[in-house]
Write a sequence for this structure.
């Protein structure tokens, strides 16, 4: 186990991009992809070891291996602090440069246009089949059935600028709209490195090398247009995602053990007041608590699902909130409930219901500051 742990640390991050690789013995994989410069990240290595640790435990429980110390226990790399790449939308001038003249590979231009006018992610676009282009009540939409999360499975209305997709879908039938973008992974996966590589080459060849640009920038353009049209989906998702994230941390633990000493001292004196009285908006989170701020690209569907799942863990699965609060220290389960209710009360006061349909994101109170507090 230790030798395997050491060997996989030398593997190239591209070792699994070909389906044929998974048919080869590990010695051949190591010879072909080992020690070639860039290696697997600590996160990936640890993920592999976690899977093996759980597999061994499963086999042990079924009597397939002798009881004894799990050889994969404790084999993990220290993970360095990771900075999340923040994508930026293309400017109008950059979009013109990107799409005119059309790329020599028509499918690349078409897939990018779908992302721009629908907000679909990279893999969601390339996973679309002809059967995923559907119509209900006279409205054409993309039926996204494969996504990175359960909340990402959704129906996305088709923009008028994309009606050319109807003919493409009819030709594709049950097949993919873009068969040129071949998936990779041990079971087909939803990763499309070839398409990603072609798009990056196209962008760079046209001089679009600004920091923060990528295929995901097209989704950012879509969200930006929603915001400019006063569809505050992103702000509502940020609020709900933040509240859900704090509840999740009380169940699973916080990435930061303690708030600054002076803040903890003040909170200790105001403990009772914090738990029973309405919270005040306008308190800025210290930088080290940025992990409580949801990703900028979180959608309303994802935020709503995140909150539903974490509440279900408490109400229906009986999980107890036992982790220490970085601000107030030890809290009983019932005190956590009080705190979360006050926290949600303050943040949700910035939301106005757009209508009675739960699927629609609420409007934002213009007087409020969504992530204050």
């Amino acid at each position: 186990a230790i030798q395997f742990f050491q060997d996989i640390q030398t593997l190239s991050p591209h070792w699994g991009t070909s389906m044929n690789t998974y048919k080869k013995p590990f010695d051949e994989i190591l010879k072909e992809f080992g020690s070639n410069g860039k290696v697997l990240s600590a996160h990936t290595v640890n993920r592999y070891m976690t899977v093996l640790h759980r597999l061994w435990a499963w086999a042990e429980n079924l009597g397939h291996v002798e009881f004894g110390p799990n050889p994969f226990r404790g084999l993990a790399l220290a993970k360095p602090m990771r900075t999340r790449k923040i994508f930026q939308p293309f400017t109008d001038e950059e979009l013109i440069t990107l799409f005119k003249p059309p790329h020599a590979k028509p499918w690349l231009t078409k897939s990018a246009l779908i992302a721009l006018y629908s907000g679909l992610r990279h893999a969601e676009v390339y996973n679309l089949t002809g059967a995923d282009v559907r119509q209900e009540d006279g409205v054409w939409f993309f039926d996204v059935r494969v996504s990175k999360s359960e909340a990402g499975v959704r129906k996305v209305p088709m923009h008028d600028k994309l009606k050319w997709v109807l003919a493409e879908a009819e030709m594709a039938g049950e097949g993919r709209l873009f068969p040129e973008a071949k998936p990779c992974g041990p079971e087909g996966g939803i990763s499309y490195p070839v398409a990603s590589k072609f798009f990056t080459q196209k962008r760079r060849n046209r001089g679009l090398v600004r920091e923060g640009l990528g295929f995901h920038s097209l989704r950012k353009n879509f969200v930006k247009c929603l915001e400019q049209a006063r569809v505050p989906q992103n702000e509502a998702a940020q609020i709900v995602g933040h509240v859900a994230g704090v509840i999740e941390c009380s169940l699973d633990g916080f990435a930061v053990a303690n708030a600054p000493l002076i803040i903890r001292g003040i909170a200790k004196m105001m403990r009772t007041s914090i738990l029973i009285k309405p919270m005040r908006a306008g308190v800025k989170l210290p930088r080290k608590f940025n992990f409580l701020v949801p990703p900028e690209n979180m959608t309303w569907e994802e935020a709503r699902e995140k909150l539903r799942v974490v509440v279900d863990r408490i109400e229906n699965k009986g999980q107890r909130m036992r982790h220490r609060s970085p601000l107030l220290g030890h809290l009983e389960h019932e005190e956590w409930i009080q705190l979360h209710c006050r926290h949600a009360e303050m943040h949700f006061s910035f939301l106005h219901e757009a209508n009675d349909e739960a699927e629609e994101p609420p409007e934002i109170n213009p007087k409020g500051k969504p992530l204050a507090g």
